[in-house]
TrEMBL record:
Assembly mode: Composed of 13 different subunits. Subunits NuoA, H, J, K, L, M, N constitute the membrane sector of the complex.
Naturally occurring in which organism (per UniProt): Thiohalospira halophila DSM 15071
A matching Pfam family: Oxidored_q3
Topology in membrane: Multi-pass membrane protein
Name this polypeptide is given: NADH-quinone oxidoreductase subunit J
EC number: 7.1.1.-
Family: Belongs to the complex I subunit 6 family.
Stretches assigned to coiled coil: none
One Gene Ontology term of the molecular function aspect: NADH dehydrogenase (ubiquinone) activity
Amino acid sequence: MAFEQAIFYFFAAVMLLSAAAVITVRNPVHSALFLVLTFFAAAGLWLLLEAEFLAITLVLVYVGAVMVLFLFVVMMLDINLAPLREGFIRYLPVGALVAIMVMVMMGLVVGPETFGLDRIAAPERAPADYSNTAELGRVLYTVYVYPFEIAAVILLVAIVAAISLALRHRPQSKHQNPDAQIAVHKADRLRIHRNGHSAD
């Protein structure tokens, strides 16, 4: 077995075991940490495919931002774990059946009979000065520039819609009016008390 194959099987085994631990451990913090390990293993597989940009994006975006948010929410909220554990045992047979069906379909698609090495040759090695980031940027901003811009606009609209839906104007909430603060006069704020009498 070659060294590259050994590294691939190592990352694949770590990713499978950590992904299984995400849904089997009882502590939600441990589940989130196992998900972080799954992302790191997936990033290692991306590196083996010479897709370093996708690997570092997976680490920075999901591990550095999304998972930190998950951990913050899980640790700050008081989550009642009893109902969650009861539903896990109840739906375990259905989940196992769905997992077996997905594994069978993936085996049929990427198996040796359908997508074997005898039908498609291995890709050639990229030269030493090859940059996956530069190639991805060139394709993204030339061939797929319009879909990229449309996706950016859709995400922007989704952000604005989420903020507008979550914004609630409550009458008891306190807020500041900068215009009123700037236009204030000394007589409106200052009151001098002398010998029990007030003088504005």
